[in-house]
Amino acid sequence: VDFSLLIGEETRMEIAPLGQVSFRQDGIRVLDAAGECWSKLETSFTNSQPVHIQVFVEDNIVEVFADGRFSLAARLPRQAGRLKLRFHPATSSQHLTKIRVSEWSQP
Asked: What is the pTM of this model?
């Protein structure tokens, strides 16, 4: 998933059934389906400029890259089922721009 986001209060990207990624001005966290944090990175984003974010999911591994400066990864507990993406902004004023979702199939 490749997108830009104005980060204000917390925005969550749900990656069902694995878990979710939480984006805040002061940090990014990768959480499992129960809400337990598996990876955390402190950041210093402002809400004046959109942040370019890339999220890669392969099997149960989640990798997050932000603005070419920050990265983190987590291997989450395996969960059965197809992946589904959903965004949960903290307020109605937050929005995603330039979103692109790609699926790779294995040869």
From this structure: 0.86
